[in-house]
Amino acid sequence: MDHNFDVIIVGGRPAGASLAARLGRAGLRVLVLDKSSFPSRPAVSAPFVLPHTLALLDELDLDEAQYAADTPKLERLVLEFGSYFRAHFRFDEPVGGRQHFYAVDRARFDACLWDSLGRYPSVTALARTRVLGLLRDEGGRVCGVRASLPDHDDALEFRAGCVIGADGRHSLVAREVQAPVIEERSDLSTTLYYAHWEGVADYGDGIRDTPAQIHSSCDGFSFVLMPSADAQYMVIAQGRGDSYNALKGSPDAVYDGLLRARPQVWRRLAGARQVGELRGLKKFDNLFRQARGPGWALVGDAYHQKDSLDAQGIYDALLSAKLLADALIGSFAGERELDAALASYANAAHAALAPMFAATMDRVQREIYEAPPPFVARTLLRWVLTHERYARRFMSLVTRRREPAGFLTPPLLLGLAASGAAGRVASVFRAGGDPTDPLPGG
Q1: Is residue 413 located within the same domain as residue 336?
Q2: Which domain holds residue 311?
Q3: Strands (E) located in 342-403
Q4: Is 2 exposed, middle or buried, given 0-12, 13-18 or 19+ CB atoms closer than 10 A?
Q5: Which of 175, 382, 396, 408 is the most buried (most CB within 10 A)?
Q6: Looking at the 3D structure of the chain, how many domains does it have?
Q7: How much of the chain is helix, strand and coil, in % rounded to 5?
């Protein structure tokens, strides 16, 4: 086994595997190390894969039929705002040639990415390999890793020009290099638990295709029912951290109680059954770490974490890996020194991710941490959020085709409210009802 590489990547899930694929395609000698075997579940993941994410996966020549095997294509989502109204969202404009999205099985998805590395002769991918620490040269620069491999009694040392931490929220690489947190929103932390269910009832709105259902109960909690792989649903209960902590009982009992207390959610689960264990994250961190240093860089969740409300996690991992790959390929081609290339990556990654980070934090504050007065929910919020122009703008925002700045200016907000109010009156008089009304029985 060769012990010398251009780049060593610690972590082989979306960020690490996609980075390795891009570097391997350019001919760099890459070592990828992951403590898991594949397929295996990541620590916590409730993944939407939206069209802009599918487009980045296309760049890696991955087969959608494999990573989304036995997973239904979703063409719309429905946001229920308490018992006030429903808003309908579709990708009316194709992104990367697609108007659909998935709630993928992460074990299957990650295995597809990992297995794809076999296409690149210059990439060595070692599973069930635990990184024990980093190596440094005389000047303190990171120059490799020490790792424990299966079927080896002694730890082995591997050296490289650059070591990448793609090892998730609790990154060993980030700890070893003492990467500081440079930006954080600890005031908006949420708690999330999820499980898979079988036998979930249809949404029941008379439309043929099955939507992803998002239910905000306007009391600090939000719920998602996502059709996923193998005829199962992923059912998520998310809420303010302090609201979750105030609930008594085991996580399973709290989760069950939250679902049963929401009629719009429980009407679909009353005849269903939970399969598999409850999993979750007691505290979502919202932060950026320092992205690089002498001989090292961070990517994916090791670098940047934010709440899952806008379903951007996998996209952010793939995008930051793409930006880092561009910097590393240029450096090894002699275009610039490695430290300058990593500095360029850090600037580019923050510029690409920070606007959506701020937008997601604003949504967490508005939709989970703040409860609107009933009058405002029934009028202004309904008129704006159910407007088809708002829906188009929002879907272009979450697919990163629209910058968050200027998403809802005061003149636009007033225009949408006035137009939405008039449209609601016309709909009621014309049809005797409104498709944005809550479903009966909720």
Answers
A1: no
A2: 4-46+106-184+286-357
A3: none
A4: exposed
A5: 382
A6: 2
A7: 40, 25, 35
Q: Is residue 344 part of a domain?
A: yes
CATH of the domain at 115: 3.50.50.60
Angle between helices 313-332 and 14-25 (to 10 degrees): 30
Find the mean pLDDT for residues 20-35: 98
Q: How many residues would you count in the chain?
A: 442
Does pTM surpass 0.70? yes
Task: Please check whether residues 344 and 417 belong to one and the same domain.
Answer: no
Q: Are residues 290 and 421 in the same domain?
A: no
Decide which of 357, 392, 415 is a domain's last residue: 357
Instruction: Return d(Cα 403, Cα 16) in angstroms, integer.
Output: 27
CA nearest neighbour of 297 among 331, 345, 260, 262: 345
Report yes or no: 82 and 377 within 8 Å, Cβ to Cβ. Answer: yes
Inside any domain, residue 320:
yes
pLDDT digits (tens, 9 = 90+) for 381-416: 999 999 999 999 999 999 999 999 888 888 988 998
Closest CA to 10 of 346, 316, 303, 352: 303
Same domain (yes/no): 345, 314: yes
* High-pLDDT (> 90) share of the chain, %: 83
**pLDDT tens, residue by residue, 342-393:** 999 999 999 999 999 999 999 999 889 998 899 999 999 999 999 999 999 9
CA distances from 261 to 207, 248, 264, 442 (A): 26, 15, 9, 11
Number of Cβ within 10 Å of residue 337's Cβ equals: 10
